[in-house]
């Protein structure tokens, strides 16, 4: 199992992506585990809020490259359906859901953090989209969640240029909500989640749901395009370049 759970005081459940040797990648199996963990927590009356984090000083390095092999379009679409279910549950979660980001939140890890309605980051955290480096479009809802936070023009540039966003700049941009001292993002996130859980739950849920209204359209768009891109020659070149630690030579096919 790559997911660890710990119930803290005040009913705050900490869900940790735990594969630190590989900087906590978010492959298909991890996404399935996260979906199950969040579903169970939502139904558990002892859980009043959830904090999502990564093990040993990293949030997540993103999608698991080893998992991104060529498959049939139907298989890719089926796997994308898990992403759709996970992200829609996160952005419309009926309980407070807070990301605690230390270190890198890259690619799918970046998307996963922004799918949480509240993001707490260490002052040393760093964010990068990174999808186009491996011949893919941003997924896990980033096409909607990032512009919702920082505006469409700036979001487009962040996604196309893959610029690394340091935590203080991320706060100024509105990408994250709170900054913590290094090593303290989890504790601040737990405290923030407990405070949010003390508020009236129904208004909080309806407000969150309103701001999530455009995300389903982005997820549908991802599901229609990403399966073909995953099988493209450019994606294969992007994966090879990533493994070989070199610049990719894309051909547009």
TrEMBL record:
CDD domains: crotonase-like
InterPro entries: ClpP/crotonase-like_dom_sf, Enoyl-CoA_hydra/iso, Enoyl-CoA_hydra_C
Annotated Pfam families: ECH_1
Family of this protein: Belongs to the enoyl-CoA hydratase/isomerase family.
Name of the molecule in the record: Enoyl-CoA hydratase/isomerase family protein
